[in-house]
Design goal:
binds pyridoxal-5'-phosphate, single chain, alpha/beta, four-stranded antiparallel sheet
């Protein structure tokens, strides 16, 4: 039970009321708003305890059994647990649990697999790709020659024939698949076939869908890709961090590019949090959670379509959807909609949609996801209510009376579904 309920002062509240009051304000914000950002989630109290633990005190450069510091017995124990559980969860040949984030995981793989100047074929950022997939001023765009594929202009899904054509035309050293804003299932086997035809390496970045992959609700790239990277804090519902899986033949190179290649001491408290989260993901309840994420995404999508919203590709196969505002609110930017929704306690992010004509700071789209609401225990009925609240808010264009009414409905919903602490 948290201290704001018992009235007891925490060590932080006593030592630093200034920081503590910001913490309390953030706790209140998370409690009283609807989190629809597709890449966010609410971790369990057990994961929070691990991340806030004394494992933050320890230097453990190196790997279990081969550390550069004394006193690492429990560090080895926790890192081995995290590795074993990740291996059981995904069925990979080799795993490295040390990357500090998804971006660091991708950096280590590129440095292990490629030379500067090599060619990467990857998804364009404005079509749902990630910064680390070759954005011009990201390290990936600075170090490598980038060729992008996009979604098909008509279907808004990957056109595997076009991706094959680009692969044969540009002979990339590596093909990267995976996305930050792609509402459809990804056919990793098809990507692997193309990579094999041109003798390229394949990296699958499953940062968003990792939780679905872990329980078999999205195809797994693990059997077919050379490298699989992920974050651990999105659908996987662990601490903010990263993970690399790879074939055994790539293990030594990957490990050496994580440490000492790109990182120093691992964040052992976060690795402890990953061990706990992977343990949770191995429980039967986690599959039920992922199934509910999908049911909720389908309900939210259907309810938005009933209210005349257009969704990119017409719907969703996973935990997220992209709303194309141009269809029913042509003059409303993603930026404006995000701001109006935030005022009502509905937290979303503006997002580029494929072939968007607006700038990335404005956008014509919104990205909505259901992982965090599902963690709070919300179901299909709540998704239909929320679709209505989103529509009412955007239609009223920030009108104060509507915002007030929606804000109080959002508060009521949040009270019905408290976040577990
Ligand atoms: C979120 C994400 C990442 C990066 O994660 P960080 O932990 O923010 O560095 C990498 N790839 C994809 C596809 C993502 O969606």
């Amino acid at each position: 039970m948290n201290s704001s309920i018992t009235g007891a002062k925490t060590p932080l509240a006593q030592a630093d009321p200034e920081v503590w009051s910001v913490f309390e304000a953030e706790r209140d914000r998370q409690e009283s708003t609807l989190e629809l950002i597709a890449s966010e989630n609410h971790v369990s109290p057990a994961v929070l305890e691990a991340v806030g633990s004394i494992f933050t005190n320890k230097y453990a450069e190196g790997y279990p059994g081969k550390r550069y510091y004394g006193g690492c017995e429990q560090m080895d124990a926790i890192e081995n647990l995290a590795r074993e559980r990740a291996t059981a969860l995904f069925g990979c040949e080799h795993v490295n649990v040390q990357p500090h984030s998804g971006s660091q995981a991708n950096m280590a793989v590129y440095l292990a697999a490629l030379k500067p100047g090599d060619t990467i074929l990857s998804l364009d950022l404005s079509h749902g790709g990630h910064l680390t997939h070759g954005m011009r001023i990201n390290f990936s765009g600075l170090l490598y020659r980038i060729v992008h594929y996009t979604v098909d202009p008509k279907t808004e899904v990957f056109d595997m024939a076009e991706i094959r054509r680009l692969a044969h035309e540009h002979s990339p050293n590596m093909i990267v698949t995976g996305a930050s804003a792609y509402p459809r299932s990804i056919d990793f086997d098809a990507f692997a076939e193309i990579a094999a035809e041109i003798d390229a390496l394949l990296m699958a970045d499953i940062a968003h869908v990792a939780g679905l992959v872990a329980v078999g609700l999205h195809p797994s790239p693990v059997p077919v890709a050379d490298y699989v990277t992920t974050t651990t804090h999105k659908t996987l519902r662990g601490p903010r961090s990263g993970l690399i899986m790879c074939k055994s033949k790539h293990a030594a190179a990957v490990d050496s590019r994580v440490f000492p290649g790109t990182q120093g001491g691992p964040l052992m408290h976060v690795i402890a949090g990953k061990a706990v989260a992977f343990g949770e993901a191995l429980q039967p309840g986690f599959k039920a959670y992922q199934q509910q994420i999908l049911r909720n995404a389908t309900s939210l999508a259907e309810a938005l379509i009933e209210r005349k919203f257009r969704l990119v590709s017409g719907g969703t196969d996973n935990h997220l959807m992209l709303v194309d505002l141009r269809h029913n609110y042509a003059h409303v930017t993603g930026k404006a909609a995000e701001t109006w929704l935030e005022a009502t306690g509905i937290i979303v992010n503006k997002n580029m949609i494929p072939f968007d004509t607006r700038k990335p700071v404005e956008t014509s789209g919104l990205r909505l996801g259901t992982p965090a609401l599902t963690t709070r225990g919300m179901g299909e009925a709540e998704m239909r209510t929320i679709a209505g609240l989103i529509d009412d808010t955007i239609r009223s264009e920030g009108d104060a009376a509507t915002a007030k009414r929606v804000r109080s409905q959002v508060r009521e919903l949040c009270q019905q579904f408290p976040i577990a602490h």
